[in-house]
Specification:
The complex is a heterodimer of chains A (177) and B (748). Chain A has 177 residues and is an alpha+beta fold. Chain A has five helices and five strands, in the order E-E-H-E-E-E-H-H-H-H. Chain A has a five-stranded mixed sheet, covered by helices on one side. In chain A, a hairpin with a 2-residue loop joins strand 3 and strand 4. In chain A, helix 2 crosses helix 5. Chain A is globular. The termini of chain A are far apart. Chain B folds into three domains: 152 residues, Aldehyde Oxidoreductase, domain 4; 190 residues, Aldehyde oxidase/xanthine dehydrogenase, a/b hammerhead (Aldehyde Oxidoreductase, domain 3), CATH 3.90.1170; 350 residues, Aldehyde oxidase/xanthine dehydrogenase, molybdopterin binding domain (Aldehyde Oxidoreductase, domain 4, 2-Layer Sandwich), CATH 3.30.365.10. In chain B, strand 13, helix 7 and strand 14 form a beta-alpha-beta unit. The relative contact order of chain B is 0.14. Classes of the chains: A alpha+beta (177), B alpha+beta (748). At the A-B interface, helix 1, helix 2, helix 3, helix 4 and helix 5 of A face helix 1, helix 3 and helix 14 of B. Chain B: GO terms for molecular function: iron ion binding; oxidoreductase activity. Chain B: Pfam families: Ald_Xan_dh_C, MoCoBD_1, MoCoBD_2. Chain B: It comes from Tianweitania sediminis.
């Protein structure tokens, strides 16, 4: 007779590590970490890239938004191991040396933040939105930036900042054509 | 001394000087300071609201690789015995909460254990394996059904005025031509700043602690830690250079700083504790509020009697109190008024100050009753306010240092187009939506607190200005730089603002809207004093161009001291420092009410005022409310920086919209358990909810309120906003909702 199946769950295995690599802000990193480490915790706790913020850890606030292969995602909801080979851009990777990215500059000029905690997520989300090619009107920006909460209430300034960059981008595009 | 206007002068819309650090991710918040050998703390919270811890089973948790220690009430190190050691600057009367003190459970989500591990993941996994057995008791967390148990707090909270009554309000009400009675309620709110409460304690090689805490007052936290853990004053520094929002939630030291410090001392290594978003319901909230009002008026609408009674929630162990009722009895001219204020004790954490504590609820609910009175009298809501305009403070009878509320009403109404408002409800329709227009008045105290600042100039002309203030998103860094820049005629690029450190000159906690008035006064005084020292050094130089002139005859511009009547006579500050052989010059000054040369504290009322106008569109079938337009005119004295000032007001208005339509901390009263303790279920306004917000600052010169004529802006934006929206909802629908938030189920 086969042995009686046990109803007890297996003892949790903690000594599991997986090897993978990510390109973060243009630099390749190799990791060997537990498969339950999220991208957000990897960035913040193991690489000291604390620009990506933790505001809920449940994908409800958008403070942890980063770009993965150009697409905006909530990094708290993504296990790092699942992104093997991806290109990650965080807030630390947007500026060109001391020259701020146009969105960063516009956020400063329009006072599109107060405490600054949601700001990296807002900016990465705005870049993702621009990449999607959908931010054509203020109404669209409002709707499509609604996954990024701001408790300080800087929303109208955020829309103004993003709109300005979108408009400038369109002008540049026209000039190039 | 005087200066010319530059882009960084007072009153100019300078962009935040801390902006680049915040948009690049360089700004480090409390949980973001690295340390070697850091122990990650994960808090295990109580699953029950009242009772005792029977047993804690730690075996499985301790078996998780990487776990360093588990602290509970059974093995925690020694902490202070007496309540007074735990009482901070803003503590209400009572017994402050002590985490891991004994086996007693006073509220749901009370911290019962701290798991410490080498990684965040290990701490979290171990915390999930910790099993706690309880002895349960029946909790009471039902505010609405406990109102009959309300009591007058036996001990008053410092700084909160007693309810102010005058005349015989009941008699006046009985005799009044018109009477309106209205019972209003507002839900509990959680601050929910975007940054969760967190503390990183860096354990120095000499055992000294550097504590990065999410707080609105580094010095308040420091004295708390010194008292609770018996630390030497020079062995602990608390820092909060960047604070990811707070709105009052960081006024008192919370249990994360207590636990992180306890862990660091116990383990003799650096430690960090970060709360989860769910655990953010476990320390502080704006209390549930019930306000019962009776207004008596003449046929024409003149107020003859105000009776204003409020009840707010508190915990079973502290009597948290706020000024809820005096706004209503103090906003308008009325000979007879009565106010009373009571508490209901619940098995919850102690509530606390949240943006415009007392006024956001008390003034707002009172303004809703004023809206009801306007319909009862049959006058326009704005006209009713003007009819009862208070030229002097109705409570004290004292004049105001300034009050440009009438101008705010006028300018706001003009900008909004209020004159075209039809008086009847349901008179405006836009397709499926009913349009409504409403308005309300806002009020908040304008105070000024004793503050010290240091100014130090180096030989290269670099100026450092320092005070232990906090910038919780308010723009404190920037206005300090502007005041220093204007006073000493230096560009902000040459100015280094140092705040957020308990070692710096004394500053009050960031709260109550007093920070701008207080820090600007201290910084101006320190910079003026430094200017005097520089001038004296310049006069002593051989061949000084200032030998024969007085300080009053020079100005500070472009890094130079210049004779006003002969601009060819000047010396640059770097020249003065070099020729006088000074490596640096430093002064510390203290500004405060009643100190010599400061504003007089003669009997005058000091307040900020606002007029808020709101347009809503309400879906006639579905009850969905959209706030399509807000105009808010604010009379707040001198505006130091219109860019950051506008943001402060907008932020208050957005939070007021949340209060009106979304925010409600729900409790499952069967278990005393919070139900919507996350951002998916505790709704705050999102970008799509916000349309036009037009902020107007009304001219209001005030030489008496504070040295720079500043009144502060942190709170006024929220006060009355929800009343203006409720007034607009009634105007749109004809339905009067007396319980905030106005969710669609209450309209259909």
């Amino acid at each position: 007779m086969p042995p009686q199946a046990t109803l007890q769950p297996a003892a949790p295995a903690f000594d599991v590590k997986v090897d993978f690599s990510l390109t973060i802000n243009g630099r390749k990193h190799s990791f060997s970490v537990e498969p339950w480490v999220t991208l957000l915790d990897l960035l913040r706790e193991r690489l000291d890239l604390t620009g990506s913020k933790k505001g809920c850890d449940h994908g409800q606030c958008g403070a942890c938004t980063v770009l993965v292969d150009g697409k905006r995602i909530n990094s708290c909801l993504k296990l790092a191991v699942t992104l093997d080979g991806s290109e990650i851009t965080t807030i630390e990777g947007l500026a060109d040396g001391d020259r701020l990215h146009p969105l960063q500059q516009a956020f400063v000029e329009h006072d599109a933040f107060q405490c600054g905690y949601c700001t990296p997520g807002q900016i990465c989300s705005a870049q993702g939105l621009i990449n999607e090619g959908r931010a054509r009107t203020a109404a669209e920006i409002r709707e499509l930036m609604s996954g990024n909460l701001c408790r300080c209430g800087a929303y109208t300034n955020i829309v103004d900042a993003v709109e300005e960059v979108v408009r400038q981008g369109a002008l540049h595009k026209e000039a190039a054509e | 001394m005087s200066t010319s206007t530059t882009a960084s002068s007072i009153g100019q819309p300078l962009s935040r000087i801390d902006g680049p650090a915040k948009v690049t991710g360089r700004a480090k918040y409390a949980a973001e300071h690295a340390a070697d050998g850091l122990a990650y703390g994960w808090v295990v919270s109580s699953a029950i609201a009242k009772g005792k811890v029977k047993a804690i089973h730690e075996e499985a948790a301790r078996a998780v690789p990487g776990v360093i220690e588990i602290l509970t009430h059974k093995n925690r190190p020694h902490v202070a015995w007496f309540d007074r050691s735990y009482r901070d600057q803003v503590a209400p009367p009572g017994e402050p909460f002590r985490a891991l003190y004994d086996d007693e459970i006073k509220f749901s989500f009370q911290p019962l254990a701290l798991v410490l591990a080498k990684t965040l993941e290990a701490a979290r996994a171990a915390a999930a394996l910790l099993r706690i057995d309880y002895i349960q008791e029946e909790p009471n967390t039902d505010f609405e059904n406990s109102l009959e148990k309300a009591y007058v707090p036996p001990k008053k909270r410092s700084g909160i005025p007693a309810p102010a009554s005058r005349g015989d309000a009941q008699k006046a009400l009985d005799e009044a031509h018109l009477k309106v009675t209205a019972d209003y309620a507002s839900a509990a709110h959680h601050h929910n700043p975007m940054e969760m409460h967190a503390t990183t304690v860096i354990y120095g090689s000499d055992g000294a602690l550097t504590v990065y805490d999410k707080t609105q007052g580094s010095q308040n936290v420091k004295s708390y830690l010194v008292g609770v853990f018996g630390l030497a004053n020079d062995k602990v520094t608390v820092r909060n250079p960047y604070v990811g929002g707070a709105f009052g939630s960081g006024l008192r030291p919370h249990y994360q700083v207590y636990l992180a410090t306890m862990a660091a001392l116990y383990l003799k290594r650096s430690a960090r504790v970060t709360l989860t978003r769910q655990q953010m319901v476990s320390h502080v909230r704006r209390p549930e509020t019930f306000q019962s009002m009776a207004l008596g008026a003449s046929e024409a609408g003149g107020l003859q009697s105000i009776i204003n009674s409020a009840v707010t929630a508190t915990s079973t162990f502290e009597d948290y109190q706020e000024n809820v009722v005096n706004w209503g009895v103090g906003a308008y001219r009325c000979a007879d008024a009565a106010a009373d204020y009571k508490l209901v004790a619940l098995d919850t954490p102690t509530p606390g100050d949240m943006r415009a504590p007392g006024a956001a609820t008390g003034m707002t609910l009172f303004e809703c009753a004023m809206d009801e009175l306007s319909y009862a009298v049959g006058v326009d809501p704005l006209q009713l306010r003007l009819l009862n305009y208070a030229e002097v403070d109705p409570i004290s009878g004292n004049p105001f240092t300034s009050k440009a509320l009438r101008e705010a009403y006028d300018i706001g109404a003009e900008r909004f187009g209020w004159g075209k408002r039809p008086s009847e409800p349901r008179a405006m329709r836009d397709g499926n939506e009913l349009t409504g227009w409403g308005m309300a008045t806002g009020m908040w105290d304008a105070t000024f607190q004793k503050t010290s600042a240091r100014a130090r100039i180096s030989a290269n002309g670099g100026l450092e200005v320092a005070t232990a203030a906090s910038d919780i998103g308010t723009g404190t860094y920037t206005i300090i730089a502007q005041v220093a820049s204007e006073t000493l005629g230096l560009p902000t690029a040459n100015i280094d603002v140092k705040i957020g450190d308990s070692d710096l000159p004394a500053s009050p906690i960031e709260g109550g809207s007093w920070m701008a008035a207080s820090s600007s006064a201290a910084v101006q005084l320190a910079c003026q004093s430094l200017g005097t020292r520089l001038f004296e050094a310049a006069q002593d130089l051989d061949g000084s161009p200032f030998k024969d002139i007085k300080f009053e005859a020079v100005s500070f511009n472009d890094g130079r001291i210049i004779a006003k009547d002969d601009p060819s006579r000047f010396l640059s500050i770097t020249d003065i420092m070099k020729r006088a052989d000074l490596p640096s010059l430093e002064v510390v000054e203290t500004a405060g009410p009643g100190l010599s040369g400061m504003v007089s504290q003669v009997k005058k009322a000091r307040a900020t005022h606002s007029a808020i106008f709101a347009e809503v569109k309400v879906d006639d079938e579905l009850g969905v409310v959209r706030v399509t337009r807000i105009v808010v005119a604010v009379a707040a004295g001198r505006i130091l920086n219109p860019k950051t000032a506008r943001s402060q007001i907008m932020g208050g208005v957005v939070m007021g919209m949340g209060m009106a339509l979304h925010e409600e901390s729900m409790m499952d009263t069967r278990f005393g358990r919070p139900m919507n303790h996350n951002f998916a279920e505790y709704h705050i306004p999102v970008n799509a909810d916000i349309h036009g917000i037009d902020v107007i600052f009304v001219e209001e010169e005030d030489k008496e309120v504070s040295p720079l004529g500043v009144k502060g802006l942190g709170e006024i934006g929220i006060v009355g906003t929800a009343a203006a929206i409720a007034s607009a909802v009634f105007h749109a629908t004809g339905t009067r909702v007396r319980k905030f938030p106005i969710t669609l189920d209450k309209l259909i």
